[in-house]
Write a structure and sequence with these properties.
The chain has helices at 3-23, 28-40, 50-65. It is mainly α.
Length: 76
């Protein structure tokens, strides 16, 4: 993962991952992981380990396949 890809992931995708994980009853390990990545990602020189990167990519990928739970507004 390049620095630009990491920056885009943390800026645009990670907030959505965090919201979903915090709201869907995920286990404590996963909640702690996403919070830790958000915290560490603020450090300019931080880079995820290979294992962290794999988990991050999996979570982002799952976000894209998650069903849309936003209510649909239907007007009469």
């Amino acid at each position: 993962m390049t620095s630009q890809e990491l920056d885009e992931l943390l800026t645009f995708r990670w907030p959505m991952v965090m919201r979903r994980v915090m709201a869907d009853g995920s286990d404590e390990w996963l909640k702690n992981f996403v919070r830790s990545i958000a915290r560490q990602g603020k450090r300019p020189a931080w880079r995820p380990t290979q294992k962290q990167e794999q988990i991050m990519c999996r979570l982002v990928s799952e976000l894209g396949t998650a069903p849309n739970t936003d209510p649909e507004v239907i007007e009469d």
